[in-house]
Amino acid sequence: MSTPSERRAGSPARLALVCGIAAFVLDLALVPRAPGIGDAAEFTLALALGGVPHPTGYPLYVLAGYPFVQLLHALGLDWVRAAGAWSALGAAVAAGLFAGLVAQLTEYMDPARRLGLWLARLTPVLVLALHPVWLRAATEPEVYSWRFAWIAGAAWFCFAAVVALEPGALKPPRPARIAALWGVICGAGLAHHALSMIFAFPLTLALFAALRQRGVWRGTLLIAAGIGAALPLTSWGFLVWRAFQPAAYQWPLEPSLSAVWAHIRGAAYAGYLGGFAPRPAERALLAGTLLPIVIPGLVLSAFAALREACPMLRAARLALVLSASLLLAFTLNYGVPDPAMYCVPVLMVALLWMPSVPPLLTSRLPRMLVAMAAVAAVASTAAWGLSATLSHRAQLVRIDTRIRAAWNAIPFERGVVLWKDDHCARLVLFQLLEHSHPERVVANPSRLTWRTERLAFQRRTGFDALAGLDLHTQADLALIPPNVRRRSPLPVVEFRDVLGVERSSP
Known about the structure:
By secondary structure, the chain is an all-alpha fold. Helix content is about 65%, strand content about 0%.
């Protein structure tokens, strides 16, 4: 890499825009018409109704996504695909910012080596944007794609700032501006996803070191950063408002500030810490598509960072590798059933060794051979990612068709439907967004242990689902459906039984 005083090799912003637009077109075309596995139906409801999803509440995701989804639905798109388009937009922003990040690392490469330069810039972006797990996040209603966008944007800002603060830079940016903008970025990351702080803290240290080296560090910069961070954190006020003015459907958030704070800090997830229990499909995703890439990739990215000529950029790149390593360690000690998406930011960092390879190869090997190797790598990734995505999309449609058939097979209009499954929100989606069998009372027995959900159920049915029960352990949750049957004046069905009949039918 050349020094900052040498001629730049093109604009990172222009490449970021082109890559972002291309990614949005691709991802939008792949959005399925059925909700994804897990929390996709809940997030579709949150975006359509402006409600609060599960902890940590994701207020920026809902506040920005609600008008976007409303607009697309008004233009004729169904709710599920409109919510999926919000994820596609997040992935497009993430791909564009990642392209800008990669271009930042190659900004001072010799522009005369055009082939090596463009291969260095495009290969890691295309490999990332065509990876099957990335495409899943980009096409289903979930919060992950916008988290990827935050990580790529935060890293790019940090890298650009430390380069601009190098002693050789002619026009360094104002320190107060850097501090304020970094505060806004960190505040947005914290408001969107608490795990963003795993990346924010090491990158903050790299920025602090760059400011100190330049001799412009002042304690007052903390004030600027604090004010900047406070701006996006005001979005937590949305959770307070919704706690006291709930949407037609949302997580059972009790109307108290203590409940809101517990929701924001994800207190309900404390039991997942210290374990690792992915469901079989997620374990296969990790073992087959992520870990074989990210583990050696992190080592290579650390080596590439150590070879960085710009001292402060070297420190920032090492800080990013450290962040990704910490996130990987956390993921492998977090007992949620769907941890694969947590590893995608690690994949982003693990691909940052790639930009240094093509210029080196084109200086030593025939350029056509290097170009063919890069095209083959991207083409194989595209075939793998698109094939897996289309197969998964078809699977989602089959699952949705089966669930809809079971929903329509329930032999009553006014009654109680119990489903102890995260997909219970899909039945509510049928009711609230598609106006299908709206008189049925749908409930997840596990969530009836939450006071707000319990009272809402009692208002709709006229009886207390937990009356007479003394619940202490997870195993005691099995007592709830029989108790509902005993006390209900309405017919009661467990949806898994109806779905089981449907599964066994031709």
